[in-house]
Amino acid sequence: MKTHKAIRWIAGIGLALGMASTAMAIEVGGLKFDDTVKVAGKELKVNGAGVRVRIVVKVYSLVLYLPEKKDTTAGVLESQGPRRFSIGMLREVTGDELGQAFMAGITANTDKAERSKFVNQLAVFGEAFVNIPQGKKGDIITVDWIPDTGTVMALNGKQIGEPMKDINFYNALLKIWLGDKPVDSSLKPQLLGKG
Hints:
Layout: H1 2-23, E1 25-28, E2 31-34, E3 36-39, E4 42-54, E5 57-66, H2 73-78, E6 83-89, H3 95-109, H4 112-116, H5 119-130, E7 140-146, E8 150-155, E9 158-164, H6 167-178, H7 187-191
Antiparallel strand pairs: 1-2, 3-4, 4-5, 5-6, 6-7, 7-8, 8-9
Domain Chalcone isomerase: 26-193
Signal peptide: 1-25
Pfam family, one: Chalcone_3
């Protein structure tokens, strides 16, 4: 009798541990990402995730983390508190190529007057990509919005560049994928949890 209880108890622990490990990570494009992250002491959950495909080439995995689920672009942009998006490289790319692609996405989804408000931050942002000579497959870039600090970028956990203070700049980055002219129209609904 005791043996059966012990076996059930051990099986229960194994099941609980198995469930815990599956709940701790999601797979996007073959890369693993945490399903929750802490930014500025606040727990953020995956809002949505997908893979950026250019023509037929998978370029990167993208995961958007928010304090609470949002299913519209406006909801994401108005979200209070810290936020994060994580990019996992699925192929080698230079920092310059990545920076140019980001700038093209920002330009397509913001007007000149809007960009003029954070022109200095665009320069800092561009400089940060100069510090990434070659992005390798599996590299992870995180871009956090931290209230009272700004936009903070990191490559594989190491900060690159200086914080960029304007929330409108962070929102301009998000519009690359969530704006009216997203770089990948199939990725937008996935980030909004509709994919």
